[in-house]
Amino acid sequence: MADHISIRKASGTWVVRASGAVLGESSDALELTEGTSAPVIYFPRSDIGMSFLELTPSTTRCPYKGTATYFTVSGPDGDAVDAAWSYEEPTESLNAIAGYIAFYSDRVAVEKL
């Protein structure tokens, strides 16, 4: 793992909401911290209502984490394009986030309960 990235189990229970509707809740979330950036909460796919997410053609490449794929999140007030991402096949050193999804907190609500 890159020296500037750390992953640990997120304490407590976390919820993600779109337009107030709960998309998922987890007590098995992970917290990824990269450098001086704010921590990002990664939710296990099994704890997310995947019917609210639609894969988009968007991708980005991080030299440390791998290639991210993006999802549009559908909520009662409409769609938030590319509001979630996942590393389907992360780099070996960050394999802990495989099968997890993160969300942009400026597009959906990510909160600790």
Could you name the key traits of this structure?
113 residues, mainly beta, Metal Binding Protein, Guanine Nucleotide Exchange Factor, Chain A, seven-stranded antiparallel beta sheet, three-stranded antiparallel beta sheet, 0% helix
Description:
InterPro entries: DUF427, DUF427_sf. This is DUF427 domain-containing protein. The chain is 0% helix and 56% strand. The model has no long low-confidence stretch (mean pLDDT 94). It has one domain: Metal Binding Protein, Guanine Nucleotide Exchange Factor, Chain A, CATH 2.170.150.40. The protein has no helices and ten strands. The protein has a seven-stranded antiparallel sheet, with no helix packed on it. The relative contact order is 0.26. By secondary structure, it is mainly beta.
Classification by helices and strands: mainly beta
Radius of gyration: 13 Å
How helical, in percent, are the residues?
A: under 10%
CATH structural architecture: Beta Complex
Give the CATH level 1 class: Mainly Beta
Quick rundown:
The chain is mainly beta. It contains no helices and ten strands.
Strand and helix map with partners:
Layout: E1 5-9, E2 14-18, E3 21-26, E4 30-34, E5 40-44, E6 53-62, E7 66-75, E8 78-86, E9 100-103, E10 109-112
InterPro entries: DUF427, DUF427_sf
Protein name: DUF427 domain-containing protein
Organism: Gymnodinialimonas phycosphaerae
